[in-house]
DNA sequence: ACTCAATAGTTGTATGATACAATCATATAG
DNA sequence: CTATATGATTGTATCATACAACTATTGAGT
């Protein structure tokens, strides 16, 4: 039951949250914002999708995704494809420029993470990656039921 | 150099960031907000401090801390103590009620984390705690120099 | 076939943590 | 004694988000 790991995770999550909140504000991000990045990533890995599906996948409100998508569309990173069989629906698909932009942003992020993990051993990196993913998965499960 | 761990951490951090952004919005938090919680925690573990010191410690803008402190003060969780030798300065110290509130909030958070980490082994929890702390420390170092 | 409910998406509005800039009061240096 | 520095507060803007209201289209039941 180890109170200690529990307390540590609880506290460090709080710390990380604040850092993240801070970084997403003051960083004059280039073209892509983190939120939009994940949207691009989703489309790019799972193919074209409508806002409803994207919202579910990303666990965001539809309105939020709608705005993000509109913004990406306006920048030319994704494009709206009408569905013939349902005139209410669209699919957003990623454009070549969108792919380029996403990859570039991803590269920048990876470099930053790489600098950040400067003194880390390969073992630690690998473990952290795995556990972080596990954590996110746990959160996803936890949220989709109750709460 | 393992591109893989790097990519994984990079991506999962993005995911976690969005989740955190999401949770801090839609959760009708009780009395304490995460940001304020860390402020209380800081005062409670490191003793009374002024907003300037707190802002440095928490790596936030002074104005942000000032508002958070004012809010906590107003709720009676911390109190302002004037410094006799410098009439511009105050120390904020935690009140009994503040301690109680902080502990209670902490307890709730721990329970949530505990539920979240439901299927995790003790080994994984311990590792994750350690690595998460290491990550936060790395971020702190990374930020305090350049960037 | 007509009406009404369901559904996909957009838009209006509010919120909350944050940063930056301006300001106020006090302190310190020249 | 004045000018500058410093601690703190307050004004303003931003941004991702949620919820609610709305529009347009679809489908279901009679």
Automatic annotation (TrEMBL), chains A, B:
- Where is the HTH marR-type domain positioned along the sequence? 6-137
Which Pfam families does this entry report, sorted A to Z? MarR (PF01047)
Q: What high-level taxonomic lineage is stated for the organism?
A: Bacteria, Bacillati, Bacillota, Bacilli, Bacillales
> Does this UniProt record's set of keywords contain Nucleotidyltransferase?
no
User: Nucleotide-binding among the record's keywords?
Assistant: no
Q: Which keywords accompany this UniProt record?
A: DNA-binding, Transcription, Transcription regulation
Q: What is this protein called?
A: MarR family transcriptional regulator
InterPro entries given for it? HTH_MarR-typ, WH-like_DNA-bd_sf, WH_DNA-bd_sf
């Amino acid at each position: 039951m180890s109170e200690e790991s529990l307390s540590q995770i609880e506290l460090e999550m709080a710390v990380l949250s604040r850092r993240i909140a801070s970084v997403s504000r003051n960083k004059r991000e280039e073209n892509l914002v983190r939120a939009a990045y994940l949207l691009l990533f989703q489309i790019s890995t799972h193919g074209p999708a409508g806002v409803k599906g994207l919202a579910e996948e990303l666990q965001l409100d539809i309105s939020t995704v709608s705005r993000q998508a509109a913004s990406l569309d306006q920048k030319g990173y994704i494009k709206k494809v009408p569905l013939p069989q349902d005139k209410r629906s669209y699919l957003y698909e990623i454009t070549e420029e969108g792919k380029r932009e996403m990859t570039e942003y991803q590269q920048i992020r990876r470099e930053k993470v790489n600098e950040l993990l400067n003194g880390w051993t390969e073992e630690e990196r690998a473990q952290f990656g795995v556990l972080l993913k596990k954590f996110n998965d746990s959160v996803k499960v936890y949220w989709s039921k109750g709460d």
